[in-house]
Design goal:
Number of strands: 0
Structural class: mainly alpha
Order of helices and strands: HHHHHHHHHH
Low-confidence stretches: none
Distance between the termini: 75 Å
Number of helices: 10
Oligomer: single chain
Mean pLDDT: 85
């Protein structure tokens, strides 16, 4: 009986959200430049919360947040997650700001107050109707994902030094790799041409 009530409640919320979305599209169009309204954000958070199974929400993190685990997660986050979420977890990236809804500022209570199990479930399974993909197989044994959960807890306290280290771990575009290679050749004296973007004007 409780399950049926829960399904009906979810259905009602989805229908209300759909009606509001249609009204918003009619008023604002399909642009993803704007932030979701308060009502949209409120409904999305509630639907997401109900979408995480209770047993998943209550799971504790089996990985101790030691230096090695944090270092592994930092590398993983910089390489896979920062393109949307930013190294600092605040979501202020070109791709992140182009999404609708935009990635949350994970240093804020809306993310930090989620349980470890909820964070794990979201990383593994993604969030429908957002840019958050599913990165796992849906199980609970992925140690790398649990390490990421521990790293997300550290986001509000990252130091400038850690952020600089992460910047070096971020993926490079082909153009950036070419510019770095040209700079190295210039520094070795193999060419007289200073790579574009690396010369200094006074």
């Amino acid at each position: 009986m409780k399950r049926r009530i829960k399904i009906l409640l979810i259905l009602a919320i989805v229908l209300v959200a759909a009606a509001l979305a249609v009204a918003a599209v009619g008023h604002r169009g399909f642009s993803s430049r704007e932030d979701p309204t308060f009502v949209e954000a409120f409904i999305a958070r509630r639907v997401r919360q109900m979408g995480v199974p209770p047993d998943a929400r209550e799971r504790p993190n089996p990985v101790q947040p030691g230096a090695d685990a944090i270092a592994d997660a930092m590398t993983h986050f910089a390489d896979h997650c920062a393109i949307c979420h930013g190294n600092d977890g605040r979501g202020r990236t070109a791709i992140g700001q182009g999404l609708y809804p935009k990635p949350p500022d994970m240093t804020q209570p809306e993310t930090q107050n989620l349980s470890d199990g909820e964070l794990y479930y979201i990383i593994e399974n993604g969030v429908r109707l957002t840019g958050m993909p599913a990165f796992g197989n849906g199980g609970y044994e992925d140690e790398d994902t649990w390490k990421l959960v521990g790293f997300i807890r550290r986001l509000p306290d990252l130091t400038d030094e850690e952020l600089m280290r992460m910047k070096d771990m971020n993926p490079r575009t082909p153009a950036e790799l070419k510019r770095e290679e040209e700079l190295q050749r210039f520094l070795r004296g193999e060419t007289d041409n200073v790579p574009a973007g690396d010369s200094h004007r006074h």
